[in-house]
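Shift notes (night). Ran TIM protein while the centrifuge was going.
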Amino acid sequence: QDWEHRQEEDTLLIERILLLLRNVLHVPPDPSEEQGVDGDASVHDRVLWALHISGMDDLLKFLASSQMEQQWALHVLEIISLMFRDQNPEELAVLGQGQAAMEHREDMRELETLRQRELAEKRTRALQRPTRHSRFGGSYVLQGLKAIGDRDVVFHKGLHNLKSYSHDLGKEPRRVPRRRQAA
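Came back to this:
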């Protein structure tokens, strides 16, 4: 709901949910209780994954970026800092770049092969084309359009110029003296 339509109970409920989330993330890790296999996700990581699956991380991003929800900014900031509590910043920065660099190299390789294939096709088309251009566009008879007498019109330009054809094509327009021109 928009903040204008919220009741006092709704505001309290939102604050209680954010405080509960902060308190759950604030629980310190206990290595003696978390005796899992090496590489296994910790309890904190599993809680973060459950938050991601439920869509709560998207709601937190919305609350952090919305101008209308600035009253929750400190709660959201504290929750986000607790989410990254056990993380090493260097590892987080490198984590996303490894896949991005590999994908970038793969995309570049694909683009290069496509470019080479396109150049090869262009070369074969150039070899198949005759080298000398014929300026003769052809002559066409326009049936159903009468010229002088009872003959059909003979059109000497390309077919792409056919739409702009008129009988006055190429004729100099008759000049009207200035004093006889309409006002």
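The mean pLDDT is 81. Residues 31 and 87 are 16 Å apart (CA to CA).
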